[in-house]
Each structure stands twice: as C-alpha cells, then as structure tokens.
Amino acid sequence: MKKLLVSALILGIAVIAGCAGDDDPAGPGGTLATVQNLVVSEASTGNSIVLTWSAVESVDGYKVYFRETADGNWAEVGTESSTTFTHTATVAGYYTVRAYKGNDYSEQYANPVNTLPNIVNTIYRIYDNFAPANYDSGFIFGPNSGQTGKVTDPNFKQDIYAYDESKGDPDVWLYSGDYGQFGNGNRTYMADPKGDYGCCNPYGSGEWYQSYRLYQTDKAVFCALPYSSGNVIYVKMYGLAVSPEPSSQNGTEVAFMYEYQTMENVTVFTSNY
C-alpha cells in the first residue's frame, strides 16, 4: 500500500508539472512544434510592424510576444489565427511567436527577430556659421558611423548642417543639406519627438521641416532621409547638447549621437534620449 501511495504521488506531481508547462505562456514547455521562419516583413511601415511565419499544422492559433531589450521579459501583444500579425509599436524591440492548441503551446519560442536600429554611440560635434571657419558644420549619417565636414567644400554632400540665423543667442538651427546658404547636399527633414522618444510620425504626416530650431533643452530630434525611389530612412539624433563654442564670441556647438533605422520606411527606435 505504501508503494502505491508513493507511485500515485509521483504521478500526480508529473501531471501538475506537465500542465503548468503547457499552459504557462511565460516560458517553454509545451508539446507543439516550434514556429519556424519568423521574419519582420518588408511590408512594415511607420510603427506598423508586420510579422510573418510558417504555419504549424493542426493548431488553434499563435501567440505573439514582444520585449524591448534582449534580456527583458516577453509580454504577449496579440493572438492570431493566421501566419501574419501587425503590431503597432511605440518602441523598437524583439518579437517571438508560439503556436497553441487549447492549453498546449509550442515546446520553444520561435527564434526572435527585432526592429532595432543601428546605435551609433560616438559623440559627434558640428558648429554653426559663427564658429571658426575651420570647424566642421555639416554632417552625413551613415548606417554604422557618421562623417563631419565643411559645407563650403563642394565635394562634401551633407545631410544636415548647423546654422545660426542671429548672433548672441544660445539657440542654433539644423538645416537640411539642400537648404539655405550652403544647400549643396542631400535633402533631410526634421521633426520633434512626440512624447515617446522611441517612435516618430512617418514623413508626410505630422510636422516635418527643412530647418529646425534647436534649443539648449532639446534632447532628441528625428530626421527623415527620403530617396528618389520614394522610400525613406529614419534617424534619431539623441544625447543632444547645445552649448556656446568657447573659442569664438558667438559660435555654437551641437554635440549628439544617433540611431539609424536600417529598415526602410520604419520609424521605431530605442527609448534613448
């Protein structure tokens, strides 16, 4: 009798543990196949992130999860019966999917995909037209690094440049590379952060400018770099520091880092500011 009681106890524990693994969406442990071929679709635009994956046979549907950082906790953001899902994101991050049937889930999460921009954490400095003439005022955004240069150099095709419209004030303007007195460069539009530094309105909606006034209190600004194809690459300048240039009477320095979203037409970034 004692042996039978022990066996029953072990069986009961095993059943409880199996059920906990199957219906607990916080971790793996189900018996269904792992979802394969999860990708962020090129149909993604703005902060509408489109995910697709391959079907798992004979399931009820799929749970979609998101986390902002690689080591964060997964949070469920939707349930889908098909193999595509659109998430309205407020910030860049990671996605995964699991199939489910009743209380049973995929044995493992799908391999995560992400919408993270390239984070270029080098501090760059550009200077306005009242700073010394040999200081760089123009800037080109690269996917992995940027380049400062002189807007007076006809061979330097800047995306933006610093320009001050009046002496003696602490503010400075960012000009599109093809705008104003030194407009021999590339077209760029700029926009305010709207509450959350992780996302901006797509170019063509909201307010985008070819000249943008920077104040000493500003922390970030979004940039849109349109291509002739109609596609747009988005950049977030962050860690902004606007300060007087010490060697000149009226010059201004703009220091910043930036994030470069490599997915065309996608407007999500980290929450860095």
Task: Give an overview in words.
It is a single chain. The N and C termini lie far apart (68 Å). The chain contains one helix and 18 strands. The protein has one helix spanning 2-23; strands at 39-40, 48-52, 61-67, 75-80, 84-88, 94-101, 104-105, 113-114, 118-127, 138-140, 147-149, 160-163, 172-176, 189-191, 211-214, 220-226, 232-244, 252-261. It has two domains: 2-114, Sandwich (Immunoglobulin-like), CATH 2.60.40.10; 118-261, no CATH class. Strands 3, 4, 6, 7 and 8 form a five-stranded antiparallel β-sheet that branches. A five-stranded antiparallel β-sheet has the order 9-18-17-16-14, with no helix packed on it. Strands 11-10-12-13-15 form a five-stranded antiparallel β-sheet, with no helix packed on it. Strand 16 (220-226) and strand 17 form a beta hairpin. It is 8% helix and 36% strand. By secondary structure, the chain is mainly β.
Query: What are the segments in which pLDDT stays under 50 over at least 5 consecutive residues?
Result: 1-26
Largest pleated sheet: 5 strands, antiparallel
Structural class label: mainly beta
* Shape assignment: elongated
Set down the secondary structure blueprint:
Blueprint: H1 2-23, E1 39-40, E2 48-52, E3 61-67, E4 75-80, E5 84-88, E6 94-101, E7 104-105, E8 113-114, E9 118-127, E10 138-140, E11 147-149, E12 160-163, E13 172-176, E14 189-191, E15 211-214, E16 220-226, E17 232-244, E18 252-261
Antiparallel strand pairs: 1-2, 2-5, 3-4, 3-6, 6-7, 6-8, 9-18, 10-11, 10-12, 12-13, 13-15, 14-16, 16-17, 17-18
